[in-house]
Amino acid sequence: MSENTVEQQEYTTVKLDVDDGIGWVTLNRPEKRNAMSPTLNREMIALLDEIELRDDIGVVVLTGAGESFSAGMDLKEYFREVEGESPVVQARVRRMATDWMWRKLMHYAKPTIAMVNGWCFGGAFTPLVACDLAFAADEAQFGLSEINWGIIPAGNVTRAVAQVMTDRDALYYIMTGEPFDGQEASRMRLVNRSVPRAELRGHVEQVARNLLTKNPTVLRNAKSAFKYVESMDWGTAEAVLGSMAAATAASDPEKGRRKGMSQFLDEKSYKPGFGGYKRD
Length: 280
Hints:
Layout: E1 14-19, E2 21-27, H1 38-52, E3 57-64, E4 68-70, H2 75-78, H3 87-106, E5 112-116, E6 119-121, H4 125-130, E7 133-137, E8 141-143, H5 146-149, H6 157-164, H7 167-176, E9 180-181, H8 182-187, E10 193-195, H9 197-212, H10 216-229, H11 234-251, H12 256-265
Parallel strand pairs: 2-3, 3-5, 4-6, 5-7, 6-8, 7-10
Antiparallel strand pairs: 1-2, 8-9
Helix pairs in contact: 1-3, 10-11
């Protein structure tokens, strides 16, 4: 499906900029430190659905407007404005948040990169971890401050940090609520790497453009395979990976495996580990 056949919507709390294959998705509530409201959650679901069908976008970068990535959930809109609503309405509002923050992002059809440019607190940890890769500014400020509000990090925030941080690091920040910067986030592997804020966008773009050179079918299945098998035992993982490898080769319109093997074995024009095979 071409981009011209995708119904494009108007958004008020999120923004999409497309630059030569990269979709820069911005949480766009800078006056609220990009806190996630019910409206933002609805629009993120619609925007991610739109991007998934656009041929002109191969990699998605998620970031925030202004000086923040996201301050987490907008407590006023998320809790106070649905007080008195039926349990069905309240459950729907909660589900919209989790639908995009981890259900959709965790196995999104295109590579996703979180670019943490500033404040990242509470509920923002869930989409941060659900993205495939994450990079932060050294100056970015992170915090699991829920303990200071008299609540626990819910909404799968605790599950998210348990996915990427050690028990000791996660529990320390969950229990103390102390903030930490991008360099500490990198040390704890919450993000892949931190760089000075002035270099952040350039660094993320470099990674995104590298991903754009890869076979998109293989790239999609490679990242999904990792996420599926990381919790499996070795025997089950071997069987699942074998099936996924065969399905990838069969469904790849580019026939990457055949090209790569031919260029390596027959043409001697390709050396694995020193770049990708030549794509038409």
